[in-house]
Amino acid sequence: MAPLEQITFYTAESSPWGHRAHIALEDADAKYTTYQIDPRNKPEWYYQVNPLGKVPAFTFGGPDVPPDQPSPESAKLAESAALLEFIADVFPEAHLLPDDPVLKAKARAFTEIFRNYVDSEFRGAFFLGKHFDGLLLALEELQRTLPPNGFAVGQWSIADAAVAPFLARMMLFVRVGLGTYKEEDWQKLREALASDRFARIVRYVQDVHERPSFKSTWDRQLELWKNHPGLRRTAGSAN
Question: Please, where are the H alpha helices in the chain?
Answer without folding.
Answer: 16-27, 80-90, 101-113, 119-127, 133-144, 158-176, 183-194, 199-209, 212-215, 221-225
